[in-house]
Amino acid sequence: MTGSAAFNLSAWSALHLAHVESALERWVRPDAATDAEGGAPVELMAAMRYAVLDGGKRLRPLLVLAASEAASGERPAAANTPEIALRAACAVELIHAYSLVHDDLPCMDNDVLRRGKATVHVKFGEASAMLAGDALQAMAFELLTPDDDAIPARQQAALCRLLARAAGSAGMAGGQAIDLASVGVALTERQLRQMHRLKTGALLQASVMMGAACGDVSAQAEAALMSYGAAIGLAFQVVDDMLDVTADSATLGKTAGKDADQDKPTFVSLLGLERAGVYAQELLAEALAALARSGLHDTQALQGLARRLVNRTC
């Protein structure tokens, strides 16, 4: 299950993050707004870049790359990251960025702080923020369907389907709809888990499965990675709910305490802070157990990312 060489998650992450940032800077490029033909409006591109660049944990791209390496059995240097994995990693991040832009709008969560800076609608206006989110969503699928042979057609279709399902009514958008309808409503633990499996967990799970789709894994490994993705997806939200209570806005980079202020059901309000912490660790154990039965040779990056997301402080 593990590679023979000592694994350093911080060093691994730094290498891959540098490549992801460079790729995002290149693909969401400012000169696209000044192209003679087909260029995007300057204001729109500025809002898109503001939403994507210079901020965020980039957890989802890292999960794509970690799963891709586990599926291929190779751990290349960041400079040699396969094109298919890099495009999949950036596509997931664009979908995540678009979702945050829309979630922060006054008609949704009405937030003014994201990643330690003003939200996109505060900076550029509501209409520009809506369009920037729409354009980021479209760009994600454009990255997965390049004109050249960087991604074989079969894998293009598989990646697009995974991402579309995770972002749509059976995933992130559906979860957000349930969330908006649940303000002031007493949900059961089962209902709360289902909401967050869609709203938060679906895209995290899809990140793992898109990484696996960049390679060729057995049915056993695919099922194990599905379980791993489901566990960390739910664990991420449990910890998010805990941090909303225990951390301040400066630490989080977003407005703290909003769940309680808006009377939203959370794992903390339902289980209590201590039990929520225990539940997060139980989900981490589930994720690591899934990797152990995957049959994959090297899952150290996936293990490390699971521990990082559960034990994070911001």
If you had to describe this structure to a student in words, what would you say it looks like?
This is Farnesyl-diphosphate synthase. Its cofactor is Mg(2+). Belongs to the FPP/GGPP synthase family. This protein has 314 residues and is mainly α. It has a single domain, classed as Orthogonal Bundle (Farnesyl Diphosphate Synthase). 67% of the residues lie in helices and 1% in strands. A two-stranded antiparallel sheet has the order 1-2. α2 crosses α6. It is globular. It starts with 8 loop residues before the first helix and ends with a helix. 45% of the residues are buried.
Main beta-sheet strand count, sense and barrel state: 2 strands, antiparallel
Name of the level-1 CATH class: Mainly Alpha
The CATH architecture? Orthogonal Bundle
CATH topology: Farnesyl Diphosphate Synthase
Total number of helical segments?
15
Distance between the termini: 29 Å
Provide the helix percentage: 55-70%
Rg over CA atoms: 19 Å
Which structural class do you get from the secondary structure elements? Answer: mainly alpha
Unreliable spans: none
Q: Bin the strand percentage.
A: under 5%
Tally of strands: 2
Query: How would you name the CATH homologous superfamily?
Result: Farnesyl Diphosphate Synthase
Number of domains: 1
Q: For the largest beta sheet, what order do the strands appear in spatially?
A: 1-2
| Element order: H for helix, E for strand | HHHHEEHHHHHHHHHHH
